[in-house]
Design a protein that fits this description.
6 helices, disordered C terminus, 3 strands
């Protein structure tokens, strides 16, 4: 007698929206990290992409931390307030990168709380880690996934604002294409009008009024 296969667990459409927001916002954040490295080293656009293309986020983060501690011949001079802001942003990113990695690389199952999901993962790097089987492990509601995605977007906004404020991006550090790419990235900071419940992720742009023709 043939056994009937059970349908695999699939996150809801709303939960998948949360996944997409987290991955998308992290991609923007990591891209801006690459531009920051390029700016501090005064690298041209093409050379900077060659320099960071094969680096993991951990490698980029560690490189920036070394640059913060030893700011020798970099774009931002030693003692610049930019390094304080950058260090704080990297610290905040440490609280979020784990969830981003779980979204990108883990299988998700139903969580312990109602209407939640949680990652399940098997890892054997240095020591064995089996995640997702303990009922006490963290699970996520849809609203929490959206909140994490918005928090990542906020980090991107803060990094861009700090780099522009302290003139890390405001000079000849790289080709014009890099500066244009930074300015065209959407750094919409989550506002009180943007609900974290997921009913609306970003406000629709207001239609511009056309000037009357003469």
């Amino acid at each position: 007698m043939a056994l009937k296969s059970k349908r695999l667990f699939l996150p809801s459409r709303d939960e998948l929206v949360g996944f997409g927001l987290i991955v998308n916002q992290w991609a923007k954040f990591e891209t801006l990290i690459e531009y920051t490295i390029a700016a501090l080293f005064r690298l041209e656009d093409f050379n900077s992409r060659l320099f960071t293309s094969g680096m993991t986020y951990v490698a980029k983060r560690d490189l920036l931390r070394v640059m913060i501690e030893y700011p020798v011949k970099l774009k931002a001079p030693e003692g610049s307030p930019f390094y304080t802001d950058l260090s704080e942003i990297l610290n905040e990113a440490e609280k979020l990168v784990g969830t981003r990695n779980e979204v990108a690389h883990s299988i998700w199952i139903a969580g312990t709380r109602p209407d939640t999901i949680k990652p399940i993962r098997f890892r054997a790097r240095g020591r064995l880690q089996v995640k997702g089987h303990d009922p006490k492990e963290q699970d996520f509601a849809f609203k929490e996934l959206i909140s994490i995605g918005l928090d990542i977007g906020d980090l991107t906004f803060r990094l861009a604002q700090a780099a522009l404020k302290y003139r890390v991006f405001n000079s000849r550090f790289a080709s014009k294409s890099v500066r244009e790419a930074i300015l065209t990235m959407q750094f919409a900071r989550p506002s009180s009008q943007n609900t974290r419940s997921g009913s609306r992720i970003r406000d629709k742009p207001k239609a511009r009024k056309r000037a009357p023709r003469a």
